[in-house]
């Protein structure tokens, strides 16, 4: 009876011994002698395969151990990345909070700048009113100064007239004195003329005294007028300087308003940009949270991979042990085959033993298949 080819699998070699009854084995006893050589050859192949599998298993175990060490390093790195991601998430959250605070402060500064602009506009209006008032005051002072100048001129003219009156009174007094002298020479006939001359002289003296009093008053008026003119001139100068200062203040306020307006626009832009930055920071926080979650998942996956490599190492060690057992069993079968070749006449008696050996081979092969 020819033996069927022994099938191979990627996990190793496996021998299937047909399950036969004892009677069938007895019938095949005549052919067993020729088959023992094939069995021995197959057993040798199983032995070589078991040895090779044991060597490969040991090498695979070493490789898996290196992979396990790398997996542990990967797990440690993944855990470190998870910790870093968690720290990044915390820092991103803090950054977002600070940006929100800056945004709030920027909005407050923008509001303050707008309020400052409103106050500056009110100040500009007040300065404009002050400039208008100073203009009106300057015009009034100029008119008063011209009026005082006219009063001074009028006082000078009155003084000139008083001088003329005083001269006339002096001449009248001389004429009255001469008339009195002539009346005294005329005697009784000139007595009436003497009385008239005396009255004229008296009026002339009173006119002279009145003109002196008027001259004194005019002098005082002229002095007051000169002082008023000087005061008006100083007032005009002060008003002019005040108007210039007020005008400069108005120009300064215009510059301030322009600067405040520009600052308000810039602060509004800054507030808008900060709002956009806050939105970006919020997205960063979300991304950091996702990254932290992914890092946690990676750390868990790396840990599971390390555990898996440990299990694979254990399985390979078990496969190596099973291969050694298979090799030992194959050697035993080979010895039994040699014994069968020497004692073929006792094949019928030892058929049960061969059956047991075949079953042992199947079990060993099954264990080898399961282990691999």
Relevant terms:
single chain; mainly alpha; Helix Hairpins
Layout of strands and helices, then pairs:
Elements: E1 8-9, E2 12-13, H1 22-27, H2 29-186, H3 191-342, H4 351-371
Antiparallel strand pairs: 1-2
Kindly describe this structure.
The protein has four helices and two strands. The longest helix is centred in the first third of the chain and has 158 residues, at 29-186. 19% of the residues are buried. Helix 3 runs antiparallel to helix 4 (351-371). It has a two-stranded antiparallel sheet. It is mostly helical. The protein starts with 7 loop residues before the first strand and ends with a helix. It has helices at 22-27, 29-186, 191-342, 351-371, and strands at 8-9, 12-13. It has one domain: Methyl-accepting chemotaxis protein (Helix Hairpins).
What's a concise summary of this model?
This protein has helices at residues 22-27, 29-186, 191-342, 351-371; strands at 8-9, 12-13. By secondary structure, it is mainly alpha-helical. It starts with 7 loop residues before the first strand and ends with a helix.
